[in-house]
Amino acid sequence: MVLSDGTIRSLLQNGELGISPLTPGQVQPASVDIRLGDTYGIVEDGSEGVLRLDQRIHYKTIRAERYLLLPGQFVLASTMEYVKLPGDMTAFVEGRSSVGRLGLFIQNAGWVDPGFEGEITLELFNANRCAIELRAGRRIGQLVFARLDARAQNAYRGKYQGQRGATGSRIFLDGELRLDDI
């Protein structure tokens, strides 16, 4: 079940759900607006021009209040908000219609696992023929929350837990056994 504004406010007030910083106007009827942070990540070109999923991908990190996203360009960005979900709640990341109508595609794989904590890394793509100016603090998307039928037996403790800033892919770690996996 998708959570309503009243339920979201109650969960925020009792500390069960954490979103910071947060202004009252960000809580919508069935979601919370998320804003663009000031950190961007761009995949660095390798000498071969090929990204390999089993090798570390290097990113150039840029901190800026303003970023010009060129036509056809892809960039990672972070949210201003640090989110902390309880073990019985998930969230969906959705773009705002008014942003999508500009040709700005926003994604983060669309899903935030129960137990996740951190800033959300967004993947932004400019499908327009014009550059799009991105500004820190601008409402860029929304989180839609839903309760699980039961608390997750294995809440998220993965490779992106606690992330801050635009965090690049860590897919190369998929095959490695970590202490958290034992």
TrEMBL record:
Molecular-function annotations in GO = dCTP deaminase (dUMP-forming) activity; dCTP deaminase activity; nucleotide binding
Pfam families from the entry? DCD (PF22769)
Q: Which domain of life is it from?
A: Bacteria
What is this enzyme's EC? 3.5.4.30
Q: Where is this site: Important for bifunctional activity?
A: G110, W111
Query: What is its EC class?
Result: hydrolase
Catalyses which reaction(s): dCTP + 2 H2O = dUMP + NH4(+) + diphosphate
Query: Pathway listed for it?
Result: Pyrimidine metabolism; dUMP biosynthesis; dUMP from dCTP: step 1/1
Biological process terms in GO annotation: dUMP biosynthetic process; dUTP biosynthetic process; nucleobase-containing small molecule interconversion
**Complex formation:** Homotrimer.
Summary of the function given for this chain in its UniProt record? Bifunctional enzyme that catalyzes both the deamination of dCTP to dUTP and the hydrolysis of dUTP to dUMP without releasing the toxic dUTP intermediate.
Name under which the protein is recorded:
dCTP deaminase, dUMP-forming
Q: Which organism is it from?
A: Harryflintia acetispora
